[in-house]
Amino acid sequence: MCAAVCAGAAALLTAGGDQGMRRAGLVLAGGGTVRPATGWDPERWLRAVRRLRREWLCLPVGLLLAVVGESVLPLVLGLVAVPWVRRRLRARERGRDRERRADAVVALCGGIAGELRAGRQPGQALLTAGRATGALGGAEAAVLAAARFGGDVPAELRRAAREPGGEGLAGLAACWLVSVDGGAGLASGLDRLEAALRAEQDQRDGLRAQLAGAWSTVVVLALLPVVGLALGWALGADPLRVLLHTPVGVGCLLTGGLLEAAGVCWAARIVRAGERA
Question: Which pLDDT score is estimated for 50?
Fold first, then answer.
């Protein structure tokens, strides 16, 4: 009872503090109306759902299987799977961010070349295209400051090229250095750099399309145990009870799980080796 009262008081204080913060923010911003805090705020709940990490879905799935199979083992396996799924999802997100950054670098080269042909100076062209494309990443402030105040733009571009997906900025730095020291045309060099980066991007997309069938095979291999369990239920058997409540079933579950994980990792490693090649 005491714990429930403390929890309710904390919730009321949190809600009141949240409302006070909103009121203070609106007053400092120069006006607006403050809506009273209610128990149901759809926007807040939607934001909370978006912040929910997908790897934590392993816990409800494990809980459901634990209830159906009347065993705590699926819940333990779901809890153990959370860090592994988190690592895989983070790696996939980093890969997507790397590809988006590479595409933005290609757009940056084309944007600078277009601005130069429109009559802008190189520094102004870099400022305009850099803000528009977002290809400079975390080094955007340093690169744009160097372009605006006459700093060492090639050095800042090379530092920005160390970030994942920004490798093409090293070519931009080389073109910039050649155009400043040797007087060569920066626009023509950027056109050639853009063409080379686009050819590399097309090659990567073509390789991904060719490997789509191999990735489908990996997914099918991963789903085969689920298909086997579904067939067991369809035939009137109770595979979860056998796997979770008998010594032979537990042994088969552990052995099959290890073999399945090894097979999926092996197949995925082969496909990734093809991607790297």
Answer: 55
